[in-house]
Amino acid sequence: ARAQAMEVDASPEVGYADIGGIDQQVREVREAVEDPLANPEIFQEVGVEPPSGVLLYGPPGTGKTMLAKAVANETDATFIKMAGSELVQKFIGEGSRLVRDLFDLAKERAPAVIFIDEIDAVASKRTDSKTSGDAEVQRTMMQLLSEMDGFDDREDVRIIAATNRFDMLDEAILRPGRFDRLIEVPKPEVEGRRRILEIHTQGMNLADDVDFDALADDLEGYSGADINSLTTEAGMFAIRDERTEVRAEDFEAAREKLDETSEEPGVVGA
Ligand code: ATP
């Protein structure tokens, strides 16, 4: 059963070079996750505790999952992903059991990076904790905290969580020794959008009239995931037109199509 809820990837394909526009965040994640996994003795020599857990927060599609995968990949660690929503279970004790399984599996497969997406699903401030469903979610969160509190820093397991709803989080999970390294992952600025456009068109046959500067300028509000959809969609327009070269007009058409299908301008594919 645990194999269903958890995604295990011995060597995810994503590397730092695939991530654009969030260099500072990449540096911070490396410092918090890579150094303790790769050189634990440095922390012992200096006499500081490495950060326990890293919390990535920010809008959807900005590269939080990519970051977690990349750091696992680049440290040759097993990547183990679990969605917070999967930890919310109907039966009493099931969520806690999943949390235990998650940490047991990580220790078995160490070095490992545990990634819990949508951590808010199990770690929200509750407005009404009287309902039994909430009580079960609360138990699951307590189990998660107790696993983290019981963590021996020499164990080569690192934990990264992500949320789009930072404001909803229960402060209990942010205490020292828990998710004590907070890293905001925002939508990319113009330079970042340019870089992400480059990354996602690397294998594409582009016409000379494609101008990334102008395009990046135009894509205010687009996340990395939006830009990924845009490049794929542009390629589709070229194919429909029976061309092998992707032109500026294809990006324009893609842009219109994506803006149409999203309610908020610039927020697509989230
Ligand atoms: P969510 O909060 O919805 O889970 P996320 O922040 O985890 O989103 P990812 O799953 O990492 O986002 O990104 C989705 C896809 O969008 C990636 O596979 C990648 O193609 C593209 N993408 C997002 N951000 C970036 C980025 N900074 N650089 C390059 N590609 C990106």
TrEMBL record:
Residues 251-260 have a biased composition (Basic and acidic residues). ATPase which is responsible for recognizing, binding, unfolding and translocation of substrate proteins into the archaeal 20S proteasome core particle. Is essential for opening the gate of the 20S proteasome via an interaction with its C-terminus, thereby allowing substrate entry and access to the site of proteolysis. Thus, the C-termini of the proteasomal ATPase function like a 'key in a lock' to induce gate opening and therefore regulate proteolysis. This is Proteasome-activating nucleotidase. Residues 251-270 are annotated as: Disordered. GO terms for molecular function: ATP binding; ATP hydrolysis activity. Keywords: ATP-binding, Chaperone, Coiled coil, Cytoplasm, Nucleotide-binding, Proteasome. It comes from Halobium salinum. Belongs to the AAA ATPase family. The chain holds residues 135 to 404 of 408 of the full protein. It comes from the Archaea. Homohexamer. The hexameric complex has a two-ring architecture resembling a top hat that caps the 20S proteasome core at one or both ends. Upon ATP-binding, the C-terminus of PAN interacts with the alpha-rings of the proteasome core by binding to the intersubunit pockets.
